[in-house]
Amino acid sequence: SCEDVLRLITEVRRLRRGATRSRITRAPEVCGGAPTIAGTRIGVADVVALARRYDWDMERVRAREFPDLSLADLMAAVTYYRSHEEETEDILRRDRESLERLPPAPLRR
What we know:
Layout: H1 2-23, E1 24-25, E2 36-37, H2 44-53, H3 58-64, H4 71-83, H5 85-101
Antiparallel strand pairs: 1-2
Helix pairs in contact: 1-4, 2-4, 2-5, 4-5
């Protein structure tokens, strides 16, 4: 019936949201509490930075940078970013500033 179909659609949407959330975790002892892909030390911000480099072609990001992750893991990071854009941009900004403060590498002769 139509009601059963609507109930099924609602359940599928609920499960999808839950699956996306469980792929992204935060723990104070992992990457300073920044959001990461569950079971890894790969941050959402890292995925976003590389996605930008590859013009958001997540298949290429996976193939060239994260072959051990599933496309679903990477898409979960992108989904998290889209709903937490300000937080992720702040992490990216802090990372950039940290790199800028490092002294230049010595030249080898």
